[in-house]
Amino acid sequence: MTATQEETRVLGPAQLRHAFGAFPSGVTAVAALTGGTPVGLAASSFTSVSLDPPLVSVCVAHGSRTWPLLRDRERLGVSVLGAHQERACRQLAAREGDRFAGLDWTATADGAVLIDGAAAWFDCSVEQVVRAGDHDIVLLRVHEIDADHAVAPLVFHASRFHRITSAAPSTEEHR
Predict the structure, then answer these.
(1) How many C-beta atoms lie closer than 10 Å to residue 69's C-beta?
(2) Span between the terminal Cα atoms of the chain, in Å
(3) Mind telling me which SMART domains this protein's record contains (predicted)?
(4) pTM, 2 dp
(5) Which residue ranges make up each domain of the chain?
(6) Which residues contact 128 (CB under 8 A, 6 or more apart)?
(7) How far apart are CA 6 and CA 4, in angstroms?
(8) Closest C-alpha among 94, 92, 96, 95 to residue 77
(9) 3-state secondary structure of 139
(10) What DSSP designation does 138 have?
(11) pLDDT tens by residue, 66-94
(12) Per 3-state DSSP, what percentage of the chain is helix, strand, and coil (rounded to 5)?
């Protein structure tokens, strides 16, 4: 079946958020030093893009007041937040207040800010910014990485934070 012009309808933000919320995602902190002070935001739209060259991406809303402070930094840190870092994520997503109050973080020599205790981190530079609707797709070239698979990631699904639990082994795994 193909849709005709009459059957095509405009999708509203609430409908889109509801459907997009069916797809679980990890949560990242994107941060850098600006004038010696850490500046950052939370982003759940992080994904791997390419192995050669090493690229990842995040999407940032055009209305973000933080992205303009970060976009021209030499390096950006992307930290994959752990299940124990829900409070840090809420702080980094807040519109007001000191987003880094009480958070442990490390800055690289090039100014990328990495959240201590994260499941993984990426030291990146902006490769390209692609305007897409009401967001920018930010392609980031990865320069340095590390990961701790013992740290369970923080997961965002259906507008709530979740933690991954170990599933019981299937009967196929016992064979």
Answers:
(1) 16
(2) 44
(3) Flavin_Reduct
(4) 0.84
(5) 25-153
(6) 138, 139
(7) 5
(8) 92
(9) strand
(10) E
(11) 999 999 999 999 999 999 999 999 999 99
(12) 15, 45, 40
